[in-house]
Amino acid sequence: MKVTTRASCADPSDPLALTVDQATTAIRDALTPLVGDQQVAIRAALGRVLATDCISPIDVPGHTNSAMDGYALVGSELPKDGVRDYLVVATALAGQCITQACAPGECVRIMTGAPMPPGTDTVVMQEQAERLDDDRVRLDARHRTGQNVRQAGEDIRRGTQVFAAGRRLAPADLGVLASLGFAELRVRRRPRVAFFSTGDELRSIGEPLGEGEIYDSNRYTLYAMLDELGVEIMDLGVVKDDRQALHSAFVQASAEADVVITSGGVSVGEADYTKEILGGLGEMAFWTIAMKPGRPLTFGRLGDAAFFGLPGNPVAVMLTFQQFVRPALRYLASGHWPTPLVIEARSGVALKKRPGRFEFVRGILAYDGQGRAEVRPSGAQGSGILTSMSRANCFILLDEDCAGVVEGELVRVQPFAIEI
Ligand code: AMP
Ligand code: MG
Fold it and tell me: Which of 37, 70, 268, 383 has the greatest number of C-beta atoms within 10 Å?
């Protein structure tokens, strides 16, 4: 792993600060997708990444069949004008292949999914047929040859590639794979991610709070975001701002995990020894990123593991995770770096901003009175105010050059967790 190290200082207008795009590129360039795969049952494969290309062993559908309940017949026998009566000579049910052919003036009663009887190529839906008695049906001239028939292999042809290796499996994919008869799948192994919080003021939930102490919330937001990603999680708890404790936590985490994530102090090298320990164990970059919130970020290699030292403030943790760590984990797992979906919406209010850094405003995207998408901030934007993050369903993206937004102006909006 080669890490782009760049001098930085604490001034947010620092010309040496990295832009969000530069930091993203540096992270991506330093990482290599993981190797290793395993066999899993199809039900256990949701969110997993295919290790091999998937080639269809069969046609789907396997037989040319009816798309409707109705009457199957030979298309050239349809009336050109007026009406014509037909003898119903058999019934075709789904799951049965009938051998009965249709002579001129004959048709077969057919159910959805039933294979087409020999020689027939057209289905008239029952709602458009007039049943005269048990044996006869009357059809009019509004029909076309070939209608309401699903051709064998029209969805998937035997021998074609259905999914390429690297595909992250969604519910519909599991259905497609089941329709091909796959009971088990070869998938890549999941990234192992170790994380811990740092800070003398932190208490784990369940412990009493002393004077000036706070509950550790970052481990819970991180746990939840990692859980959603489907990675293997190792929660290493709270580690004190203490040289020995930090050193052993870093060593243990990097020995067991592919990726190590911390929140708090270490991200800026709060104490000199943190920088020293991290530097001694790997190759580190202590970045200032021109973004708000989430300015300081440490990225590098800790032993064989990738390391992300996130800021301490709860919203900064979530934002830097979503912008940098989440795509990095997806990339390690699949080889694909996902891009979040960004759409445009009208801002329901004016937004103040000075040029220089990229601001991620926690927002609520909703419909205005006329059914148009409109976005507004979800509350106070301090980087420790987690309730406005909890109310938000998107970030409003105000890029480096933006010098404020007037009410009604179109802004770029990144809805949470939609990526392509
Ligand atoms: P730091 O980066 O360690 O200076 O932390 C910045 C702010 O985030 C401080 O107010 C910390 O108390 C707070 N903070 C750090 N870690 C956590 C955590 N795990 N949970 C909640 N707040 C935290
Ligand atoms: Mg701290």
Answer: 70
